[in-house]
Amino acid sequence: xxxxxxxxxxRYSLDAPTIESILEHARPLGHREDAEFLNLGFGFLYYGxxxxxxxxxxxxxxxxxxxxxxCLALGLKDNGRGTLTFVDPSYSLLRDGPLRTVGGTGQWxxxxxxxxHFARFEVEAIVTHHRLTSEEFFATYDRSxxxxxxxxxxxxxxxxxxxxxxxxAVVRQCRRNSYVLLHDTNLAxxxxxRHSGVRRLTKxxxxxxxxxxxxxxxxxxxxxxVRVLEDRSPELVPA
Length: 239
Ligand SMILES: C[S@@+](CC[C@H](N)C(=O)[O-])C[C@H]1O[C@@H](n2cnc3c(N)ncnc32)[C@H](O)[C@@H]1O
Description:
Blueprint lengths: L15 H10 L16 H12 L3 E5 L5 H13 L3 E5 L5 H4 L14 H9 L7 E4 L3 H6 L1 H4 L4 E6 L5 H13 L1 E10 L4 H5 L5 H10 L4 E6 L5 E6 L11
Parallel strand pairs: 1-2, 1-4, 2-3, 4-5
Antiparallel strand pairs: 5-7, 6-7
Helix pairs in contact: 2-3
S-adenosylmethionine binds next to loops.
C-alpha cells in the first residue's frame, strides 16, 4: 500500500509561546489545564496520542474554542501527515439554549474566521470544518469519500442519547485499534440531573469487553480513552 507523503515540519510545535497561545486563544474548558505552569493538561495527552499512534484521519465532534482540535492537529503537523475533520454546528448557549450546548459560543459561524483561528496555529490546511451536527454529518459518511477514522474526539451534545449516537456512529467508521476519546466523563451534578450521560455511556462501553477496552481519567471534567477491538464493530448499544 502507498504510504501518504510525509512533510518534516520546519519546527516542532510545543514551545512555550505556542502553549501560551493555545491556552489564550483555543481556551480549554475542563481539560485539567494550568496556565501558570504552561500545562495543557489533557492537551498533552491528545497531542502525545497523535504523535505515538500516527493516525491518518482524526474526527473531532464539538469544541468550544478549538482546544482539542488544535492539540490534535499540532500532533498531525509534527508527524508530517494526516488530516482532521471537525464537526460542529456552531451552537451558542445564548442563541440556542442549554439543551443544545453548554460550552458553545457560536465560534464557528463564519468560515473565514474559522480558517483564521486555525491559521494562528498553522494547522488551517490540516483541519476541515463541517458546520453540521454530528447526526447530519454521519448520515452521509459512507458516501462522503472520507477515510476510516483512526482517532476520534467526542465532545458535542452530552445527553446520553447524543453521546451514544456519536460513539456508535464513530465506531462504525473505525477499524481494529482505532481509538476514541470521550470528553466530560466527570460531570457528577449534570450526570445526576441527566443533563449529561457521558459517564453512563462509559459504563456501558466497559461492559462490552469483547468490543472495547476503556480507561477513564476522572480529573477536571474527565476524559476516557477507548480502544476499538474489532473492524466496524457490530451494533452495540451501551446502556
Ligand atoms: C465544548 S463543546 C461541549 C461541551 C462542554 N465541554 C460541556 O461541558 O458541555 C460545545 C460544542 O459542541 C457543539 N455541539 C453541540 N451539539 C452538537 C452536535 N449534535 N454535533 C456536533 N457538535 C455539537 C456546540 O456547537 C459547541 O460548539
